DNA sequence: GAACTCGGCTGAACCGGTTCACCGCCGCCG
DNA sequence: CGGCGGCGGTGAACCGGTTCAGCCGAGTTC
């Protein structure tokens, strides 16, 4: 285990000062082309890698961003969404040689505390916040802290920080239009957490569109995104009088669970029940019948979030942080789980 | 955005030297109880949080561990395994106030490079290595580097680093014994990557047990863990003459895909086909019929891996790093997807 | 030829902790 | 009363980078 190579070693080997080495390695003016080339060559030869802590201490930046996820291990594990998002984020970050620090928390208080600590320690240069809620304490908290942050979701009214989002209303209209065209008039929806921003946006969009189309019924049931709750709600829905002919799920996991319940009750899909899933993970193509679902490129979404965060981090501290990035809306991918409503 | 509080500020406020503050905050001898209490009170009042970079620079430790995952975004997203593992790791790490740095890579070369860089930069104090292979270059690489590491999987012969693992052979025997008791004689298995260590261990265990039980056939097909391949292999299996009466899958995703194919082909489960999944995620309970699967506490497994790594990090550099931790083997959870073989 | 500019480089301060050598003081012992 | 040991604390060096004031010498200007 040989000692690490430092810029002092390089300086000694090249016969110059530490300062010159620093300028050369960082591509700044202050050294001639010849000296720069010599220093770079020596550095490469000695296998120099700068010490992150030393650099951070000087420039007061961590070259890392953080994500605190407030979801149970079970939800996290089974929802493909987060891993895909993270992998997109990661791709952009590592291209900019930023690291990703991950923490899983239980409560909002804990999450706020993590942000506070990360920022005070300068462990991260910024954070991405998922699961934006309608009344989200975190938004003001990080803004007050001065911690660069980007909200993964939106749009957020009166936001003091950037949001990266896609229009959730448009896909709602697309789904209902599609189901309506197939003759469905009694539609139910198994939604996610009621307090999440995008859930509210979808709630409204469905309600308005349903009214416009003159649907017989369009009820929404909020859940926690788990398969268990998805199954329970579906079971209740399908056992009721005047049961819906189509059910829309706010994530893929619940849709799969719903399909399982339909099988269990001997209800043919799509013969007597159509199923639509929001968020098209590979999971939706594994079932039989394959699930009609809303496709969006979550990984690309993650990349855009990371890009937005990097731009905030790179910007002046007092720069405008209220911009928002709108991504492409999700697109309907019709598959075998939807069909005409039985007369 | 007020300036950060440093120990110099505290020292000034308390009328002592920086050194005294450091001793007081770190609970070391060198200051009297009274002074210590005063310093701690002032630190708390001023909201002091130590700068991570400065501490790292001094003590030459990052207070963070890294994981580089070499799986495609799609596999990562859909396999609950990794997120559960990570959440277990996280729980132990944050209890020890260590951070977790995550990176997703494409190739082994890239992964090795990440380890090299992380260690050279002192960005992490150690790493966890998943997906241990039979011939794994990474093991020697990190050992040569001197980078503290723990292999998530094993046992590894002639290992130069600790491994945390569970016996994969025992569950194999349990599954085959169970299926055999149900009358199954033609069993197939859809396995994971052939180059992974645990795949090989299972391969052998199945082969030996099958021979012992005198099964008619026990074929293994290797795959990449994705639902697509699981489905494709299952389709081929079920269309063949002398098709198996039971199929064992090496992960839950492929098992779900296999169940979908059975539905598609109109083959009743468990009437004409029994299905067993390795790794019991909530996914296995969402399908209909629910999948018989091998349950293990992946989150707890992650915790044990993290603990092992922390102990290696805390140990002397020349301490013995070849210990291995054996966890509880997975347990069979029979559900509705398995039943007696049709005569 | 004196004054002035400017590129190239040096030396030292600095970031915010940790650590170590050392010092003053008090009590105790012979 | 002199010497000794140990407690409580100080001051400075140190970790490995970045950055800035300033210096030197060559070229330009008048």
From TrEMBL, chains A, B:
- Where are the coiled-coil regions? none
Q: Does the keyword Transcription regulation apply?
A: yes
Q: Name one GO molecular function term.
A: transcription cis-regulatory region binding
* InterPro entries noted in UniProt: HTH_LacI (IPR000843), LacI/GalR-like_sensor (IPR046335), Lambda_DNA-bd_dom_sf (IPR010982), Peripla_BP_I (IPR028082)
**PROSITE patterns per record:** HTH_LACI_1 (PS00356), HTH_LACI_2 (PS50932)
Superkingdom of the source?
A: Bacteria
Classification via SMART domains: HTH_LACI
Aminoacyl-tRNA synthetase as a keyword of this entry, yes or no, is no
Keyword annotations for this protein?
A: DNA-binding, Transcription, Transcription regulation
One Pfam family it belongs to: Peripla_BP_3
Residues of the HTH lacI-type domain: 5-59
What protein am I looking at? LacI family transcriptional regulator
């Amino acid at each position: 285990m040989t000692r690490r190579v430092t810029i002092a070693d390089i300086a000694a080997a090249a016969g110059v000062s530490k300062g010159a080495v620093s300028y050369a390695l960082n591509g700044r003016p202050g050294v001639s082309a010849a000296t720069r080339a010599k220093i770079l060559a020596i550095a490469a030869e000695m296998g120099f890698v700068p010490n992150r802590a030393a650099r951070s201490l000087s420039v007061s930046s961590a070259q890392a961003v953080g994500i605190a996820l407030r979801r149970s291990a079970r939800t996290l594990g089974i929802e493909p969404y987060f891993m895909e998002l993270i992998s997109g984020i990661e791709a952009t970050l590592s291209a900019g040689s930023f690291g990703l620090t991950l923490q899983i928390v239980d409560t909002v208080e804990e999450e706020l505390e993590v942000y506070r600590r990360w920022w005070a320690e300068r462990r991260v240069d910024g954070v991405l916040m998922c699961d934006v809620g309608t009344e989200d304490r975190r938004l003001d908290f990080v803004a007050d802290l001065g911690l660069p942050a980007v909200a993964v979701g939106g749009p957020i009214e009166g936001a003091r920080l950037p949001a990266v989002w896609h229009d959730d209303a448009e896909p709602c209209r697309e789904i209902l239009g599609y189901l309506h065209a197939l003759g469905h008039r009694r539609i139910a929806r198994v939604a996610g957490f009621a307090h999440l921003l995008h859930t509210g946006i979808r709630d409204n969009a469905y309600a308005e569109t349903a009214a416009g189309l003159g649907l017989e019924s369009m009820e929404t049931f909020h859940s926690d995104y788990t398969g268990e709750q998805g199954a329970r709600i579906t079971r209740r829905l399908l056992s009721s009088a005047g049961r819906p002919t189509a059910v829309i799920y706010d994530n893929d996991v619940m849709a799969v669970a719903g399909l399982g319940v339909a099988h269990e009750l001997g209800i043919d899909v799509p013969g007597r029940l159509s199923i639509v899933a929001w968020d098209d993970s590979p999971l939706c193509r594994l079932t039989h019948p394959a699930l009609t679902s809303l496709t969006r490129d979550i990984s690309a979404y993650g990349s855009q979030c990371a890009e937005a965060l990097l731009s905030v981090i790179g910007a002046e501290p007092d720069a405008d942080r209220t911009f928002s990035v709108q991504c492409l809306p999700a697109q309907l991918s019709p598959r075998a789980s939807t069909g005409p409503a039985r007369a």
